[in-house]
Design a protein that fits this description.
Helices cover 44% and strands 9% of the residues. It has a four-stranded mixed sheet, with helices on both faces. The chain has a two-stranded antiparallel ribbon with strand order 3-4. Helix 1 links the parallel strand 1 and strand 2. It starts with 7 loop residues before the first strand and ends in an 8-residue tail after the last helix.
């Protein structure tokens, strides 16, 4: 297998123009790809085609909508250099969940050469899984509801994207998701978001005097989990600069420190 044939394919949701990543879970996986120095290329999928793409690749849903139906979303990773018994379509491995992608990269592509830190410190995967669920709930409940309306949709598919997103979250119209900028309702929700980040996440950063990461100077996948959501806020939340400064500038420092692994291939 030559170098080009061994490159990982990463399926991400297309925004645009210009096309750029914006969704939290794909960003977690993209950070992990860069962190492990894994060669990859991005296949951009328009939002209305995400479910059909996942079905075409034969990747089952990794979670459900509140009504019990399959939540067919991205990211997906295809690794031609490894094979599992579940990969029946062709040689190689498909992985269809951001956390599972991180584990796959840790097991198959991580090398400590050059002193690179590990995605998962020893015996920490279960703790990371619980932390991932906690962070997802915190941002989904408090951040996504005030940021989702401002997703950078591709104008060419925006109408279909808005209809699909409204269907997924269970509202009749896309416009029902808007919380007007500067409104009292929005100010209240921003304050609640700040408070939730403070009590539910900022208190975990106990080594701030040593560095921007949860463990101070050394990053790990938990930092990338938070970073994925910060990337979504940067791309979707009009009050991003305000959020950067919350809790003594903690989120801005973490976001900036993760820029080393924020490349887009």
């Amino acid at each position: 297998m030559d170098a080009q044939e061994s490159i990982v394919t990463f399926y991400d949701i297309a925004s645009g123009p210009p096309v750029r990543p914006f969704a939290a879970n794909p960003w977690k996986a993209r950070y992990a790809l860069n962190f492990t120095n894994t060669p990859y290329r991005t296949t951009w999928v328009p939002y209305p085609e995400v479910a059909a793409t996942r079905k075409k690749l034969g990747i089952p849903a990794c979670r459900k909508h509140p009504d019990g139906t399959d939540f067919l979303t991205l990211p997906i990773l295809y690794d031609p250099t490894t094979t599992t018994s579940s990969s029946t379509q062709q040689e190689g491995t498909f992985v269809g969940d951001s956390f599972d992608i991180a584990i796959h990269l840790h097991n198959k592509h991580y090398s400590p050469d050059g002193g690179r830190p590990s995605l998962f410190p020893p015996n920490s995967i279960a703790l990371h899984r619980a932390f991932n669920a906690h962070v997802d709930a915190l941002f989904s409940i408090n951040g996504a509801q005030i940021a989702g309306y401002y997703m950078p949709l591709d104008p060419a598919t925006a109408e279909a994207s808005r209809a699909e997103f409204a269907r997924r979250v269970g509202v009749a119209r896309w416009e029902d998701l808007e919380i007007p900028l500067g409104s009292e309702e929005r100010k209240t929700k921003l304050a609640a978001f700040e408070a939730a980040l403070g009590s539910g996440l900022a208190v975990w950063f106990v080594h701030r005097d040593e560095g921007p990461f949860l463990e101070g100077k050394t990053p790990m996948y938990a930092d990338l989990i938070v970073g994925g959501w910060l990337q979504m806020m940067r791309n979707c939340l009009p009050e991003w600069e305000e959020l950067r400064g919350w809790h003594g500038g903690l989120w801005g420092r973490l976001y900036d420190a993760l820029e080393e692994w924020a490349g887009v291939s």
